Amino acid sequence: MNIHQSMHGMLEAPVKKSSQFVQSAHKIAAIASTHAAQVDKASRFPHEAMAAVREHKLLGATVPVQFGGSGASLRDIVEVCFILGQSCASTAMIFAMHHVKAACIIGHYGESPWHMAFMRRMVTDQLLLASSTTEGQSGGDVRNSNAPVIEDGGSFTLERAATVLSYGEQADALVTTARRSAAAAASDQVLVILDKSDYSLTPTFGWETLGMRGTCSGGFGLKARGQISQIMPVDYATIHAESMIPAAHLMWGAVWGGIAAGAHERARRHLRKLATSSGTVPSGVAWLNRAATHLTALRAMLNNTLDQYENAVGTPDMLNQLELQTAITLLKVDVSELAVASVMASLRANGLPGYREDGEASNARALRDVLSAPLMINNDRILGNLGIAPLMISPASTLTP
């Protein structure tokens, strides 16, 4: 089965209905909300919320039915990310990053028995997958790798400076990029799946940050040994374009949109209380309108890009069109900026109560968390990497497609 057959299965034959994933997401979000402040304050992994994710069998939700999964669609997972983002940004981002890696495996396992067996374990053992794409001094340049895979017969070794490895110590498996060999170019990459028993981590950097503190994204020295069969059968360049970037930008965008939606709702409730008690329209309503406008644009952009991607899956020519690839790339930039603007407007709508760290009207944590959005693979890097692509795309000449 190839990527297009697999993705069609994800889109067309889910066992659970979307409403069931939404119901599960709301239950998990309630638990996440209870512990979110403490997760942030202590900069600790959201154990309670992720236990609930496992209880609802959502870590293996996108695995195709024939391997024991629910065959959940990308749209299902994006919706869950949006719901979780309203309660605990760290929980939502961990969930999103896990499913980005799951999409890379599910979309490109080919005929590999090892990866088929691994997908079954993703369901039965509810494996949490961490991602290692940030390396050394290259930062978020995920399309270049320094560390090579060193083959030795049927096995390999890999040593990598994983300078940002989210929830690495809490994960059950690791999905990492690497140079194909010591002689390969930095851009000639493979994707490697590692069981927890295959690698060791040596801490190199802590994670004392402004927001997204529960993702525990410290730096580590990674040493791994595995079997050649654990390397994905498709080159990373293909995986990156067809699965990694679309899944990441849509899921991350949904997380940031969820943060903005949660901040908007806190502002709305606060201003309603003020209006009810005073009998007048609070001045903050003007900022609430701005927050809502940004959020509406964000949701429309996410839905539109998701529609375009779903329509292209199964048709390689459409999937790799410059227009679609550019739209997916720019989605991250635009959604991250809109999310920051929306949360900031919600904070200003509430005034000082929104600025405070305590109280039901506080949007301080939401702002700290969402400020990571433009920096998570820096928007400046993304725009710079687009090169001349925008010069090759003619603007629409009509309002409707």
* Rounded mean pLDDT score: 93
CATH architecture of the largest domain: Up-down Bundle
Provide the succession of SSEs. Answer: HHHHHHEEEEEEEHHHHHHH
Unreliable residue stretches: 1-15
Question: What's the CATH C level of the largest domain?
Answer: Mainly Alpha
Supply Rg: 21 Å
- Enter the CATH topology name of the largest domain: Butyryl-CoA Dehydrogenase, subunit A, domain 3
Overall structural class, as computed from helix and strand content, comes to: alpha+beta
**Main β sheet profile:** 4 strands, antiparallel
Strand order of the largest sheet: 2-3-7-6
- Shape, please? globular
Helix content: 40-55%
What percentage of amino acids are in beta strands?
A: 5-15%
Q: What would CATH call the homologous superfamily of the largest domain? A: Butyryl-CoA Dehydrogenase, subunit A, domain 3
Count of extended strands: 7
Query: How many structural domains are formed by the residues?
Result: 3
Number of helices: 13
Distance between the termini: 33 Å
Describe it for me?
By secondary structure, the protein is of the alpha+beta class. It folds into three domains: 125 residues, Butyryl-Coa Dehydrogenase, subunit A, domain 1, CATH 1.10.540.10; 99 residues, Butyryl-CoA Dehydrogenase, subunit A, domain 2 (Beta Barrel); 157 residues, Up-down Bundle (Butyryl-CoA Dehydrogenase, subunit A, domain 3). It contains 13 helices and seven strands. The chain has a four-stranded antiparallel beta sheet, with no helix packed on it. The chain has a three-stranded mixed beta sheet with strand order 1-4-5, with helices on one face. A hairpin with a 2-residue loop joins strand 2 and strand 3. Helix 2 runs antiparallel to helix 3 and helix 10 packs antiparallel against helix 12. It is globular. The two termini are 33 Å apart.
